[in-house]
Amino acid sequence: MTYLTLCRRLQEAGIENAEWEAKLLLEHFCGVPLASHPDVERDYESPALAEALGKREARYPLQYLLGEWWFYRQSYLVSPDCLIPRSDTEVLVERAIAELPRGARFADFCTGSGCIAISVLCERPDTTAVAVDKFEATLSLAIQNAERNGVTDRFSSVCTDLLTEEPSIASGSLDAILCNPPYVDRATLAGLAPELAHEPQAALDGGEDGLVFYRRILQAFPKYLREGGFFLFEIGFDQAETVKEIGAAAGFGDCSVLRDLGGNTRALLLRRTV
Predict the structure, then answer these.
(1) CA nearest 68: which of 121, 120, 150, 145?
(2) How much is the pTM?
(3) Stretch 220-238: mean pLDDT, rounded?
(4) Is the pLDDT of residue 50 over 80?
(5) What H or E segment, with its residue span, contains residue 4?
(6) Are 132 and 162 contacting, i.e. CB atoms less than 8 angstroms apart?
């Protein structure tokens, strides 16, 4: 299979940035350096590449095919057990790095791959984190990523269903709770990009209105925060006002809105006001 054939088939499958994806696939499966331009006449004979291309044409996520992905300044193992890290979430990480006090301990709820907690730990070596997720397989992946990025000694994990249980975290022991929760409303799920059908639906489904996790976390878990602690949530582009109202009702009316590189509302930082 030539590079041009690879590009053409990806384009015909409706893949944006087909040339870039073709280079990533050639690097991973055939050892072609990403920095070089592939030989357009060479026939890259690789059963693994052919199999991966077939899956990608069916809109299986590229990141799962590669088994790893970059987020912030680190690389992460990824699998269908976790949501794929996305660059839009980096605004949350940057704000956490800036806002956490010296020597902070924080939690990362709905941790998935662990990318939020681990990237903060990597940039703030004075901090420690506890990662919380509902699924053991997902937490196992996060633990591997903590080891991969050299923060195992400052990273702990708790397996808990946040909607029905409480994590074993001491009251008043956290300086912040960070969270990228499931926030897609159920009516919207079926119309998402085809790749998202392969990602864990539990990491996307935010209930009928997409807000079930915000309500639960803001109502049930303020007790884990120290005085001056804060919540830092990723949100959907149209959810800012509603989540602000939920936060205000829970006593967290001091709200900062964060926008991503596209100018969309992406995250909220909420502090206690009562």
Answers:
(1) 145
(2) 0.95
(3) 96
(4) yes
(5) helix 3-12
(6) yes
Give DSSP secondary structure letters for 221-264: -GGGEEEEEEEEEE--TT-HHHHHHHHHHTT--EEEEEE-TTS-
Distance CA 44, CA 109 (A): 43
Instruction: Indicate the domain borders of the chain.
Output: 3-58, 69-271
**Each residue of 52-108: pLDDT tens digit?**
999 999 999 999 999 999 999 999 999 999 999 999 999 999 999 999 999 999 999
Q: Which residues pair with 232 in a beta bridge?
A: 178, 269
| 8 Å CB contact between 110 and 203 | yes
Q: Is the pLDDT of residue 274 over 80?
A: no
- DSSP secondary structure letter of residue 55: H
DSSP-assigned letters across all residues of 92-140: HHHHHHHHSPTT-EEEEET-TTSHHHHHHHHH-TT-EEEEEES-HHHHH
For residue 204, how far is the Cα from the chain centroid? Answer: 11
Give the pairing type, strands 225-234 and 174-179: parallel
Residues 217, 109 contacting (CB under 8 angstroms)? yes
Contact of 19 with 7, CB cutoff 8 Å = yes
Helix (H, G, I), strand (E, B) or coil at 53: helix
CA atoms within 13 A on the CB side of 29: 22
* 138, 112 contact by CB (below 8 A): yes
Confidence tier at 34 by pLDDT (50, 70, 90): confident
Question: Which amino acid is it at 118?
Answer: I
Hey, which CATH number is domain 69-271, 3.20.20.80, 3.40.30.10, 3.40.50.150, 2.60.200.20? 3.40.50.150
